[in-house]
Amino acid sequence: MEIKAPDLGVDSAEVSEIMVEVGDVIAKDDNIILIESDKASVEVPSSAAGKVTKINVAVGDQVSEGMVLIELENDAESDTDSQDTSQTTDEESKEVPVADKQNEPQSPQQEEKQNDTKAAESNDSKPTKKSGVATTHALPDLGVDEAEVSEIMVSEGDMVSADQSILLIESDKASVEVPAPQAGRIEKILVKAGDMVANGQDFIIIVSNDVAAGNDAADTSDVQEASTSKQAAASEPQTQTTGEPKQAPVKSVSVTNNVAASKSDSKLTESQVNAKSAEVYAGPAVRKLARQLGVDITQVNGSALNDRILKEDLFAHVKSSMNTKSTAPASGTAVRSSLPSLPDMSNTEIWGETETQDLTRLQKVSIPQLNYNTYLPQVTQFDLSDITETEKLRGELKGGMKAEGIGLTILAFIVKATAYALTQHPRFNSHLSDDNTQVILRKSVNMGIAVATDDGLIVPVIKNAQDKGIKQIAIEIGELAVKARDKKLSTKDLQGASFTISSQGILGGTAFTPLVNWPQVGILGASEATMHPHWNASKQTFEPRLMLPLSLSYDHRVINGADAAVFTRYVATLLADPRRILL
Predict the structure, then answer these.
(1) Strand runs labelled E in 263-416
(2) Do β-strands 522-526 and 530-536 pair in parallel, antiparallel, or remain unpaired?
(3) Residues 161, 166, 172: CA angle, nearest 5 degrees
(4) CA quadruple 525, 530, 535, 537: dihedral sign
(5) Rounded Cα distance, 433 and 401, in Å
């Protein structure tokens, strides 16, 4: 009998593991092979029972729907033998006198089984305990595709009220507390700290308040009875029947940094990663993610069957590398700093007095994102924009807008000019593909605006900035800034940026090097505008002009120096005379 591949959902997929061998006797629906595509791993079950006589595929083969995977020997004959044996056994059992059976010595296992049966019959005569309805609840819309469970604020068995915070979810730029969807007792928590979760994923089971209290009392008596029964059974001699199947020990997944195995302080190249990971059990999508993160996949522990590495294992490895203080530089991880551990600073004669301060939650969440900058070849282009006339225009407009409750700052002009420049130079409004072979151009300009708060830097986003006027942009800048400082930004306010502006305003400084916010390819920094002497050729004299320093950092893999110089000068020209945007 031939077992063929079912509809796989894709044209073809790779055989990642063969779960049976020739000679194995399998049942219907037993898994026989594991196949993987770029997006998923699927275990293919057998459509019939029998003995495996031939395996027609090998690990690494590409299979498609209808392809013969294995061949089985029909087990009808073995079924017949089994039936004959069963009938003989039944006949023999009928011939044994009842009295003999009663007087026959019993094993401890048989006695225990009879005791359990009697206990069950006794329990049937008791009033039925009131059982509550346990409701499984799914996560609400998080505003992002996935986020990490940072903290679980409750435990199983706790009583919670509706809207009580029970879970803390963190993405790259924000923390969100998930409230309890109803009041009651927590029956089971389906996620754990460090898990990556998505919208609509089941995360908790809660028993409603009206039945939780009643069940607690009944559960207590059941536990006492079960405890008494177990103590009585424990006093009897225990024997182990070697013929019974043993339960396999639960595998403990331990993610370690493997620092001692590291031999290089630099990020592995793609060819080096591919060469070292040839023997690692991981699918194409996982290997692709490892190359993107710069992770040495041979140092990652797999948690799936046969130590297969999942995407979650990569994320856990990266997180562990961040949190573990190593005695030597780690190799091939996406978030290490290539620095040794701090020296022991307990000796005050050498180091003096020290004080430890915890980072804010926002700062901790930002660290993984900032570490990506280590692997971006960044260059910064500097320029000056003469905003003397633009500042005069702002002075004429700000009084009227202030009466409307709108604060008109130079940042609104910078956002508008930069958004227009990005439509004319779309390569700066793009992302580099994972395989480094394509540039993904964004058709809309979602402008990230860096805002300093007491907890750290946060970057809310103005959507479709290219379609908005300076007044509307000024309104949204003010609203986002207030929400950021009051910690009322939603995750949707923080996602989707295609380019970022970081303005130091009146903080001082002549220029700085802003860090590109991956996966973006550019960021524009603006420092404090100051008066400079400028030569007027027509008047043959110097005159004071208000000059705004601009600092453009860019990903050199996507943008070259000449294009960066042209773009920065174009933004400077638009800021000097915003009327050009109308053309």
Answers:
(1) 378-386
(2) unpaired
(3) 150
(4) positive
(5) 43
Separation between Cα atoms, residue 174 and residue 366, nearest integer Å: 9
Token pair of 423 as six digits: 């439509």
Q: Please give the single-letter amino acid code of residue 167.
A: L
Could you give the domains of the chain?
2-77 (2.40.50.100), 134-215 (2.40.50.100), 257-341 (4.10.320.10), 364-582 (3.30.559.10)
Q: What is the pTM of this model?
A: 0.46
- The answer to whether the CB of 451 falls within 8 A of the CB of 420 is no
Read off the pLDDT of residues 195-226 as tens digits, 9 standing for 90 and up: 888 877 888 998 876 544 444 444 444 444 44
CB atoms within 10 A of CB 241: 7
* pLDDT tops 50 at residue 325: no
Q: In what order do the strands lie in the sheet with 196-198?
A: 175-179, 165-170, 146-152, 196-198
Residue 174's closest CA among 519, 459, 372? 459
Percent of the chain whose predicted confidence (pLDDT) is above 70? 72
Which residue numbers are catalytic?
556
How long a stretch of residues is the chain? Answer: 583
Q: Phi and psi dihedrals of 582, rounded to 5?
A: -70, -20
Q: Which two tokens stand for residue 370?
A: 């900032």
